[in-house]
Every structure is written in structure tokens, then in C-alpha cells.
Specification:
10 helices; about 15% strand; alpha/beta
């Protein structure tokens, strides 16, 4: 194993519930009331994949792009400052790098959000590359961000890397290119859902993964 490809929201930073709130506010702004549990179930997808779950084709044509932009603006204005890092991410990244492995970020989030998270975590110097939803045609659960991440890591084959994420959509996207996924529970999805989707290993959070590093696929 030569590289680790990390998701960010819900994996390295505690932001998933804030995204739920931003989406709820967005849909209300456009006259739609969506049960919060349904919104939560879809977290992990970028706006291009998230919105069609709740909007008709006509609504997507009429205000889909505007809704995505509204969500991005309101998240940045009201919620981004509330995002907090999960403990020991920096230490985990140092451990991975000390093993001679590369690190990439592959997120369904916007470029400015990902940049903010890197600074919040203090991991800029430890990350070899990053890919965001702004740089690819489709966000998760499409595999585009993982394909791009492997390319930025020197065109690695999927068997030479492993993904780390917190949602079934991370696992689904990775599976499409035969990339294995370590799942973390800190994003709020149940263990049985992540296991059923195909996670090769499951840990509580980055700190738990660090504590059990040599029993994890990262040590391979």
C-alpha cells in the first residue's frame, strides 16, 4: 500500500450535521420541506448528486444551480466557522508519512471549504494532493474524485492505495474503481450500513485508527 486517500467532511472534520442544517435551510428557501432524516441519509454526496434526490427534473432545470450556489454561500456564511477537527488527525497523517506513504484528499466539498479544512487541521505540509468537487465532472458516489486522486499521486493503481471515508457514498465511489475503503463511524452512519456497503475495516474515528494503526489496512 503506497498511498492513503482521505475524505474530509465527517472523516477528518466534524461537519456532517452542519451540512444537514445548511441543506434544510436551502430547501426551505426554495419552498420545500424535507424531513431531516432524509437529508442526513444523503450526506456525503456533492450538490450535483444530492439535489436530484429531492428535486424533480423540472425543479433542477428551474433552480437546481441556484440552490447549489445558495447552499454553498449559506454554509460558508453561517456554518463553516463552526466546523471542528476530529482529534489526532495531524498525528495520524504524520504516522502515515513516516511509513513512506503518500496522502491525498478527495472530497465532494467545494474547493474553498477543503482549503479551510486543511488549514484548520494543520495538515497542508503533510498532504501530497487534493481533489474537490469543483475539479471533476461528478461528485461521490461517482468515482471521479478517486480517479483524479490516483492520477495526482503518480497514476497509482487502485490496489496500491486505500480510501478512508465515513459514508456509504465514499465506499460506493471507491468500489467502482476497485479501491478498498476504511470506514469511520464519526460521520454518523451506522456500522452495519458501512459494512454492508463493503468497507474493508471500520474504526470509530481518526484517533481510533491511529491507535490501531498496525492492525489496520494502512499498515499494509
Amino acid at each position: 500500500m503506497r498511498a492513503a486517500i482521505f475524505d474530509l467532511d465527517g472523516t477528518l472534520v466534524d461537519s456532517n450535521e452542519l451540512h444537514v442544517q445548511a441543506w434544510q435551510e436551502t430547501f426551505r428557501h426554495f419552498g420545500k420541506e424535507i424531513p431531516v432524516e432524509r437529508l442526513r441519509e444523503q450526506i456525503g454526496k456533492g450538490g450535483d448528486q444530492y439535489l436530484p434526490v429531492f428535486l424533480t427534473e423540472q425543479e433542477m432545470r428551474e433552480f437546481g444551480k441556484e440552490a447549489d450556489e445558495y447552499r454553498g454561500a449559506i454554509f460558508k456564511k453561517k456554518y463553516l466557522s463552526q466546523v471542528r477537527p476530529f482529534p489526532r488527525v495531524h498525528e495520524l497523517f504524520e504516522r502515515i508519512r513516516s511509513d513512506g506513504k503518500k496522502i491525498a484528499l478527495a472530497s465532494s466539498g467545494k474547493e474553498d471549504e477543503v482549503e479551510r479544512y486543511q488549514k484548520l487541521l494543520g495538515i497542508e505540509a503533510l498532504v501530497d494532493s487534493r481533489t474537490t468537487a469543483d475539479q471533476v465532472a461528478h461528485s461521490k458516489p461517482k468515482p471521479d474524485v478517486f480517479i483524479a486522486a490516483l492520477r495526482t499521486l503518480g497514476r497509482l493503481a487502485p490496489e496500491d492505495a486505500i480510501a478512508i471515508g465515513d459514508t456509504p457514498y465514499d465506499i460506493e465511489a471507491a468500489k467502482k474503481i476497485d479501491l478498498s475503503t476504511i470506514a469511520l463511524l464519526c460521520g454518523g452512519f451506522r456500522e452495519d450500513i458501512l459494512r454492508q456497503e463493503g468497507a474493508c475495516a471500520i474504526f470509530r474515528d481518526p484517533a481510533d485508527l491511529l491507535d490501531k494503526y498496525y492492525q489496520s489496512p494502512l499498515a499494509g
